[in-house]
Amino acid sequence: MRGGLWQLGQSITRRLAQADKKAITRRYFASEADLKKTVLYDFHIAHGGKMVPFAGWSMPIQYKDSIMDSTINCREYGSLFDVSHMCGLSLNGKDCIPFLEKLVIADVAGLAPGTGTLTVFTNEKGGAIDDSVITKVTDDHIYLVVNAGCRDKDLAHIEEHMKSFKAKGGQVSWHIHDERSLLALQGPLAAPVLQHLTKEDLSKIYFGEFRMLDINGSHCFLTRTGYTGEDGFEISVPSDNAVDLAKAILDKSEGKVRLTGLGARDSLRLEAGLCLYGNDMEQHTTPVEAGLTWAIGKRRKAEGGFLGAEVILKQLAEGPKIRRVGFSSSGPPPRSHSEIQDEKGTNIGEITSGGFSPCLKKNIAMGYVNSGYHKAGTKVKLVVRGKAYDGVVTKMPFVPTKYYKPS
């Protein structure tokens, strides 16, 4: 879904308020019967979730509160997201690490057991097939989560390379965790609330770390990570226990942690300067252009050995021709595909995500510009509905991150 979920949510909210609700329902929910549903679908409906099609699933874009309010509530208290549409999988076997390192830019071998990192699956041209959070559980077990909209192509890509790897004697197998659901608990109350539901001391689990533990009586995979810039967790829970866990989290927070939909998830990740695959990163974009050079392991920069390494290592040496940067601007908020111009009106790039920041109360955006225009403070023009407005290249994240790291 291009162009940002935030504005879709605003559009639905306005139209539901102003227009014939049956007509709106027909328009937005026409393909409801064809969509997959998470095990929390009825729970969302019961809590006032406004459901929309997203990556083949029926997902809540918002609940009874506005996207603005739920974005702010996440940063002040907390949010609970159903992200069960995303695909979790495990790679197993003594060769699972060398196998995965052929497909991603991370130094997987260099990760300590129980730790993870953001990485990118690349193609032969160095372009991004998908971004993913991967975790080395042990030397022969890798757990990873891929984006819902990329599931089919990701799994086909992994399977194709796994067949040829095994044909050469490599020992690797996989399991797709369709029996589990995924919840994301984010915000300042995430740890205090979750601590009520587990005996494990969460203060000893830091950002990027992974544990298998009991939460609310069920065996869960817990990763201290998220997509908001806040402290928080992604919890892989057996699907039979997912609704009970969601209820327990909301109950223990005494109403301060709210169910939150895709609309606020989009504004939160934009404020945190995080890419949305399909908007800010695509198959023709390299990790270097996308500003993810930090995700390329030091050993991988020296040795290569992943798909497209030649292209990526050349960009590291010579610099990329385009770069992803942040912007703040005047006028109406820029949206995906808004043109970026220099001060003379010459095209220098394109916005990939943009909107009004609920927390900063100003327009923010990200996009790609020609190298040379990427430095913070560079003045630009952003074209919205045919008119150019003043903008400036701005460091990301726009809102400071609050990841829980050792002091």
From TrEMBL:
Alphabetized NCBIfam families for the sequence = gcvT, PRK00389.1
EC annotation? 2.1.2.10
Mitochondrion as a keyword of this entry, yes or no, is: yes
What InterPro entries is this protein classified in?
GcvT, GcvT/YgfZ/DmdA, GcvT/YgfZ_C, GcvT_C, GCVT_N, TrmE/GcvT-like
What family does this belong to?
Belongs to the GcvT family.
Assembly, per entry: The glycine cleavage system is composed of four proteins: P, T, L and H.
Q: Name a Pfam family for this protein.
A: GCV_T_C
Its taxonomic path starts at: Eukaryota, Viridiplantae, Streptophyta, Embryophyta, Tracheophyta
Q: Chief localization class?
A: mitochondrion
**Sequence ranges of Basic and acidic residues compositional bias:** 336-345
Q: Which reaction does it catalyse?
A: N(6)-[(R)-S(8)-aminomethyldihydrolipoyl]-L-lysyl-[protein] + (6S)-5,6,7,8-tetrahydrofolate = N(6)-[(R)-dihydrolipoyl]-L-lysyl-[protein] + (6R)-5,10-methylene-5,6,7,8-tetrahydrofolate + NH4(+)
Q: What does this protein do?
A: The glycine cleavage system catalyzes the degradation of glycine.
In what residue span(s) does the Aminomethyltransferase C-terminal domain sit? 323-399
- Location relative to the cell: Mitochondrion
Protein name, per record? Aminomethyltransferase
